[in-house]
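User: Um, any thoughts?
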Amino acid sequence: MKTSRQTMRNQIISCLVFVACVVNAMAKTPYKTCGSKLGVATNVSVSGCDSSPCILKKGSSIKITVNFTSHADVEKVEDAVSGIIDKIPVPFPTPHPNACTTKGISCPLKKGQNYTYTSSTPVVASYPDLRLIVRWAIKDTNGDYVFCVLIPAELK
């Protein structure tokens, strides 16, 4: 038979696990996938963003982390980032577009493998204040997305 001390300990552990799960769920960045052919994003995190829209502070830098699974063997991938403003995609070049060398993943990508992509980019102070959808993806040499996510954002 359990003692009251054991019961109390189990209740505290259960409570701590529940709180950790809630905090983890709340810390994730709101996003939608956008039709990647060669893989799928399984989790997205943007620094300082846990609600929609993500507030991107001009003059700062953001860090994005995307966990994804590759559905194909892929030799090389590069960033494909754009801001969608009034349904018009505006390309946004990243400082180092080769995703195989500076983003935490190694190429070639292997089918069925899980990866963690990480990138940092500046939010330039001269950008106008506006709401947009950030489309962040990596693509292969044929232009097919390995992952593609849409993140509601606001530049301030």
Summary: Residues 1-29 form one domain. Residues 6-27 have pLDDT under 50 and may be disordered. The chain has two domains: 1-29, 31-155. Strands lie at 32-33, 39-46, 54-56, 60-70, 78-85, 88-91, 114-123, 130-139, 145-155.
